[in-house]
Amino acid sequence: MSERLSASTLGRLAAGVGAPQHPASVGIVHLGIGAFHRAHQAVYTEDAMAADGSTRWGICGVTQRSRAVVDQLAPQNGLYGVLQRDAGSAHQASVSARVVGAVLEVVAGVEEPHVVVARIGDAAVAVVTMTVTEKGYRRAADGSLDTTDPVVRSDLENAAAPGSAIGRLVRGLQRRATTHGTPITVLSCDNLVGNGEVVRGLVVDFCAALPSPEGEPLREWIASSVTFPSSMVDRIVPATTDADRDEAARLLGLRDEGLVVAEPFTQWVIEKDFAGPVPAWHRAGATLTADVAPFEAVKLRLLNATHSLLAYTGALAGYATIAEAVRDERLAAAATALMAEDSLPTLTRPDGLDLDEYQRSVLHRFANPALKHRTTQVAMDGSMKLPVRLLGTVRERLRAGAEPRWAALAVAAWMVYVARGADVNGTPLPLDDPLADRLRAAAAGPQGGLVDRMLGVREVFDEELAESQTFRALLQAHVAEL
Ligand code: CS2
Q1: Which of 289, 306, 326 is the last residue of a domain?
Q2: pLDDT by residue (tens digit) across 291-326?
Q3: Are 308 and 390 in contact (CB under 8 A)?
Q4: Residue 409: its pLDDT value, please?
Q5: 345 part of a folded domain
Q6: Which residue ranges have their beta carbon within 6 Å of ligand 1?
Q7: What global pTM score does this model have?
Q8: In 87-194, where do the E strands start and end?
Q9: Residues 220 and 172 in one domain
Q10: Which one of 131, 304, 310, 380 would you pick to mutate in the ligand 1 pocket, going by the greatest count of ligand atoms within 8 A of its CB?
């Protein structure tokens, strides 16, 4: 049994493993320190510090609900490894490892909400980044803040112990506003359309729901001192397994409970709208631009949409991983057609991006057999993901008089996934979704009425989609075939 990775054992790190930076202080608070943040923004931040020699961009990572990441990282002084898995040549996958030191603190949000508020309120902190997943924003069906949500309600009433991501953020901003008032940048890194605008809107909703002597001055301060740039993030980061940790122990020479695994590809496009200083992310490979929207649409509608198609059709067909699903010729053909026939006509080409090459690269990345990205992992939270990655395409194609056949296949496969709850071999498929009970209730009943019942779930399908005869007919034909 090898020793555990930490500041005191770092000297024993195996030769050839990339060594970490040592930031001197915290300059970023990150809400939602899951595997994705550790393999993406934290790596860019570490590389940015290495590029310009700055040491002020240590990260204070906050867990949303569980304290698992605190238990993984606190005994390791925030250090963790990133295992990069390349598909490699036909015979040999290759793997490389580095240790990242950008995370200086990890806070369990549920246990220490006051620490989160104080950290966001700290004048040395200039950036809050967020990966709280689609459901973590607690939006109502119309996209506004769900003020009927009990956690949001409690955050509105009680300033001391906020439990929602938006509550923590706004209470931290309030601390800044009422102490030193130093401007700050809030940067969402979740897969949402216009994620910066979304967060700004939710923050404004939160302020508006506060009693006006409290909410109004806060809203004004935020309008003048906080920016909400949008950003597009991309890197495939499957859930870490025990086998990954065992392999990392051999590679690092030290045991690492905070390990994350990722593909070689990584991309970050950030809207250049900062309220104060930010790390030199552009020197670490990030693209700063005036308009993120075209990049974001390309990523959501080509990559994420196709991911969901492969996840539902693949899981139903009994494939455990995305790489296995995309090796099935019929599924690969459907994925290719979804991108080329349905998504592509809705996209504007971002400067410097070749969209044909992009589509090929998506399939190539999905086919990486070393990643073992589970279809059921991508299938999670379908009710939150489908509207963002598929239904926009469906709506626009229908309006253009076209039949979004392949996007409809993805949606139909999701409906069947929910209804059947098992793959072709009878192996159960988990329904991990905040609306799980509602979806199960809608799916129950004869298969003939499945599409109608599912289209009635207003949190997912608006009236326009639910009433489209074309969409309904496409879904019915696919469900009958699946
Ligand atoms: C995936 C994404 O789980 C999912 O829904 O589609 O997490 C995907 O791997 C990332 O967005 C890639 O950047």
Answers
A1: 289
A2: 999 999 999 999 999 999 999 999 999 999 999 999
A3: yes
A4: 98
A5: yes
A6: 191, 234-236, 304, 307, 377-378, 385
A7: 0.96
A8: 94-100, 103-108, 127-130, 184-188
A9: yes
A10: 304
